[in-house]
Amino acid sequence: MEFKQLLEKRYATKKFTGESLSEEQVGHLLELIRLSPSSFGLQPFKVVVVQDAALKEKLFAASFNQPQITTSSHVLVFCATTQLNETLATYVAVMKQAGMPDDKAAAFSAMIQGHIAMLKTDEQKVIWSARQAYIAMTNALNGATALGFDSCPMEGFSPTEYAKILDLPAHLVPVVVVPIGVAADEPRPKLRLPKEDLFIQK
């Protein structure tokens, strides 16, 4: 399938069949998420993968009773992090393991620490981290279609309740949710703005 065809086929599934995806299918999708681009390559987010039916029932109530949650195979909860220095330290360690010389790794770390220092509050850190999580979410949506199943991006949920239900540490903030599975509904015609209303040529 060509990429344009994939984008035309993908849609926000509102109800799934309840059929479980295989570990292999989910594993392939998680790898596509892992390969997502992010600012500096830092990947300042976590993805909680929820399959447990009882947990999904609780998330359902915290998602304004939207059926995507309980009818899906898995629910992917993308969380921004405020622990940016810790994330940077992990990434620098990975860089060194890949063969980057210590002096270059140190220079990279110092540069990123300068950026992190400009994010004065946890709110600012969450906003920046959330932007990176949304990039990864796009890979999740398109990746699911490429792998032959369906997905739905969701912002209609209570981050506070999600954090409680999933017993998340304070530094992780749910920012967007993606249920995945086999669609039980049919896509409506895809509507998008015409090019002249979207692009500004200079």
Q: Give Rg in angstroms.
A: 19 Å
* Span of the ends, CA to CA: 33 Å
Number of helices: 9
Percentage of residues in helical conformation: 40-55%
Poorly predicted tracts of residues = none
Give the overall average pLDDT.
97
Structural class of the secondary structure composition? alpha+beta
Task: Note the overall shape.
Answer: globular
Number of strands: 4
Order of helices and strands: HHEHHEHHHEHEH
Structure notes:
Strands 1-2-4-3 form a four-stranded antiparallel sheet, with helices on both faces. It starts with a helix and ends with a helix. The longest helix has 25 residues, at 122-146. It is an alpha+beta fold and 202 residues long. The mean pLDDT is 97. The relative contact order is 0.23. The chain is built from nine helices and four strands; from the N terminus they run H-H-E-H-H-E-H-H-H-E-H-E-H. The radius of gyration is 19 Å and the shape is globular. The chain has helices at residues 3-9, 23-34, 53-61, 68-71, 84-97, 102-117, 122-146, 159-165, 195-198, and strands at residues 45-50, 74-81, 150-151, 172-181.
